[in-house]
Structures are given as C-alpha cells and as structure tokens.
Design goal:
flat, single chain, 15 strands, alpha/beta, binds iron/sulfur cluster
Length: 323
C-alpha cells in the first residue's frame, strides 16, 4: 500500500478552487488511484487520470493538462525534479510505501555483516526516503554505522545521485532502500563503492555489481561502434525535464567537426521501435534521459546518451565547442 495523502491533496485542490485536475503516476502506482479519484470527484472536481507512462518528475503531463484546461496537475510518486517553474500549477505526492521495516532489517544486517561492511551510506527514492532515519537507528543498534547525507536526507531524485556521492568517501558501501534495479544501477554507475539493494517488495538484499558490469560493457561497445559510424541521429526528447536543445546542438557541432553527417530527430517517447524507423542512421545519441541508452535491451545499433557522446567526442573537443 502507498500513502497518497488524500487529505492533503483534497485541501490543495480546494484551496486552489480547482475544477479540472489531471493526475499522472508511474504504471506501478496507477492501480492505487481509485480512492484519490473518488475523493476528488465527490467534491465535484473533474478528474482525469493519465494513461501515459510517467517515468519521473522530469516527465510532467503539462501539455495534456493545458489541453483539458486543468487548474492543477498532480504528479504521484515523485518529488519536484528541478527548479524550473512548471507551466501549470503542480503538486507532488511521493507516495510513501507503507511496510514494516523490521521484516527486512535482519536480512540487511546479515548481508552487510557477511560483506564485512562497518559504515554504510543509506539512500532511497521518494517512496522509501522516510524510512532512512529509522533504518539508520536500527543498523546502529546492530553495530553498523549508518551515514545519511544531510543536504539531501538521502533522497535519490531521479538521476541525481548527490545523496550517494556526498557520502561515498565516508562509507564502505551504499544501501539503496527500494524496489527494482533502476535507481541502484544509476547509483552504482556513478560510484566506485559497492551498491546493494534492500528490496522491501521481494524482501531480499542483493548486489548490483553483475548488472553494472554488463551495462558498462554494453556502453563501451556502443561508444566503440559509434566511433565507426558516418551518419548519426541526435534524438531530442520533448519531455518537460529532459528537453535540452543546447546539448543536442553542441554535440551536433562536435560530430560535424569530425566529418560526421548529423540528422536531428525529435520525439516524446524514445525506444528502439521509434528510432528503428530511420534505417539510414548508423548510430543514435539521445539527448534526454541518460537511461534510455543504457537500459534498452533490444538496441541493435549503438545508442549513446549525452555523457557517452562527450566521451566519443573527447573532453577537449567538447570544451572547445563550449567556448
Ligand atoms: S533517469 Fe530519466 S526518467 Fe529518471 S529522472 Fe532522470 S531523466 Fe527522468
């Protein structure tokens, strides 16, 4: 179960006198929206539930909200992603996962002791951040020193891994409290230290190292293959927090200086099916979510993210471009 903060949301809707509201949530949380829908509808509010995927607070359904003339957009499952002002009034509901930490505590303690970890960094996403202090206290009682970054409260915000970076030097390993591999893998790719997932859904603790190695190998293969390509597609993603025309144009200019042909593409949802429609392009660079290039299993041509593109171009060339 998740805490969708029905009372807080209803108060926000009421105080803004919102008559039309758009609610968006990641696919995994859509099944829990019925009570929120009913709570607001009973107040006479016209509620629309977005059926589109929602990958983060970088992916606000602002255009749809504007189309239906919504007074308010409710983003479930995330905190605000960046300082940019939203095009439409937006509230964020992190959707705290309601579970008993004690069920997984013993597994975390046993796992960390087995690995010889004495000091551990604790991080979590929006659904589990609220448990980090409690987890820290319980680990300490079991002889493991917890470190939670004060600046961020241990919150991993989308692909911002500051909470883990800030504690990396002070710990032997980092534990990500939460489900899935997505965030833990992102953290592992930016840290030198080991990253473990304490997964309250599967009630298990696991190591992400094997997956990290697989992704890194794919990443270097993509960069090496892309270096041989003559024609590149740069894909500009139109999602609100991912749109970065400046970066796309920097990379275009860098590739052209290397004698490559560049074709600009624009899309909202990027996956292999979408970009495979351009068979004349030999390699793609996605300027947007860095994980599109890393997580898709089926790309059979090299697909790079911005960071990989800068690796391909070489630091010097990129710096020159930015002058
Ligand atoms: S990883 Fe991708 S989807 Fe997640 S916050 Fe970053 S840009 Fe958005």
């Amino acid at each position: 179960m998740y805490d969708l903060e029905l009372e807080r949301v209803a108060k926000e809707v009421e105080s803004r006198r919102a008559r039309f509201v758009l609610v968006q949530a990641p696919d995994g949380l859509k099944q829990f929206l019925k009570d929120l829908y009913k709570r607001l509808s009973n107040e006479g509010v016209n509620v629309f539930l977005s059926a589109d995927p929602c990958y983060g607070a970088c992916d606000l359904a602002e255009n749809e909200a504007i189309l239906i003339k919504a007074d308010l957009l409710i983003n479930i499952g995330h905190f605000k992603f960046n300082d940019k002002k939203e095009k439409i009034s937006t509230i964020y509901v992190p959707a705290k996962h309601l579970f008993n930490l004690n069920f997984i505590l013993e597994k975390i303690v046993d796992f960390l002791k087995m690995k010889g970890i004495k000091r551990v960094g604790l991080v979590a996403g929006a659904q589990h951040q609220a448990y980090l202090q409690e987890l820290g206290r319980k680990l300490e009682k079991n002889g493991i020193k917890p470190v939670v970054d004060k600046a961020t409260g241990g919150l991993i915000l989308g692909c911002r891994y500051t909470a883990a970076k800030n504690v990396e030097r002070a710990v032997d390993a980092v534990v990500y409290l939460g489900g899935g591999d997505f965030h833990a893998l992102g953290i592992a790719l930016t840290l030198e230290k080991a990253v473990y997932i304490a997964d309250p859904y599967r009630n298990e603790v696991r190591d992400i190292e094997k997956l990290k190695k697989k992704i890194l190998a794919k990443r270097w293969w993509s960069i090496a293959e892309a270096a041989k390509a003559k024609t590149f597609g740069i894909v500009l993603v139109t999602k609100s927090g991912q749109f970065n025309k400046e970066a796309a144009m920097h990379i275009k200019s860098g590739l052209e200086k290397l004698g490559k042909e560049v074709i600009l593409i624009i899309a909202n949802d990027v996956n292999w099916e979408r970009i495979a429609a351009f068979p004349f392009i030999e390699a793609f660079i996605v300027s947007g979510c860095p994980r599109i290039a890393l997580d898709q299993e089926v790309f059979d041509k090299p697909v790079l993210n911005e960071e990989d593109a800068y690796n391909l171009l070489g630091g010097e060339r990129v710096n020159q471009l930015k002058k």
